[in-house]
Amino acid sequence: MIRIFFTRISFAMLMCLVCMSAGAQDTIKAPFNQEVWTREYAPFRIAGDLYYVGSYDLGCYLITTPEGHILINTGTVGSMPMIRAHVEQLGFRFEDIRILLATHAHFDHVGAMAAVKAATGAQAMIEAHDAPLVADGGESDFIFGGRGKLFPPFTADRLLHDHDTVRLGNIEILVLHHPGHTPGACSYLTTVHDDHRSYRVLIANMPSVLDETDLAGMPAYPNVGQDYAYTLDTMRHLQFDIWLASHASQFGLQQKHKGKRYHPAAFIDPRGYAKALDALDERYRKKLK
After folding, report:
1. 44-47/198-204 β-pairing
2. pLDDT in tens, 16-57
3. Which residues in the chain belong to E strands, given as ranges?
4. How many Å apart are CA 211 and CA 196, to the nearest integer?
5. Which residue of 71, 128, 149, 274 has the fewest C-beta atoms within 10 A of its own C-beta?
6. What is the value of pTM for the model shown?
7. What residue spans define the domains of the chain?
8. How far is CA 124 from CA 6, 44, 135, 244, 265, in A?
């Protein structure tokens, strides 16, 4: 059974847990941190040249090519040593990461991106609507912003837009703008191959609705409700074999993987994807009322 993870953070709790110095990146800490976000989870090969290098619940994905590698999401502040270790356990060089992508610019997905960028020299490619968020460390976030930096800021080297293509070596990744959770939230479609077949893979930014979101419009995001409606509709029409997500719990990673050896078929789950979207749509409609 697919377990749907909803990030439900009260603004008061968030601000009580902020512990940072806005002037020094090395003192910035994640403002809210669930234990499963940093719990160790052994890295593994998902399908072809696609690997899981994240924590127990934060989905970080490595796509390898002969010309270098692509890392999608970096987890919370302080996650770089874990990701580095996972990449190296899989037999790859961390320094060969050339491109950084993010499903959205929240502190639990881009928290370590500045550090990874500095350590590898990789290009950070961010959807244009989220570029201001990464540039100011989340200060302009429409829910969590206004009280200082939530993660070390960094500059996007390339601004992405809906249906742009990111290319490296033999890999092409289609950018799909799925706004709502953040203005620049994205999903990614790519194709990977093993010795037996190819797999069309969707790394989905599932549009969970935060408790603090006013779907009628927020001061810093007037069209948030319309964006959610667009995303929930358009995501139903995507074609893929395997689907993954920003959080492991959103697509039932532990139940599907179960520590197995290479087993891509475990992640072929169109019914689970439809069920997950149904649950998100139901929450959206209840909140809209």
Report:
1. unpaired
2. 333 333 333 334 544 566 899 999 999 999 999 999 999 999
3. 44-47, 50-52, 61-65, 68-72, 97-101, 123-127, 158-160, 165-168, 171-177, 186-193, 198-204, 242-245
4. 44
5. 274
6. 0.90
7. 35-288
8. 27, 24, 11, 21, 31
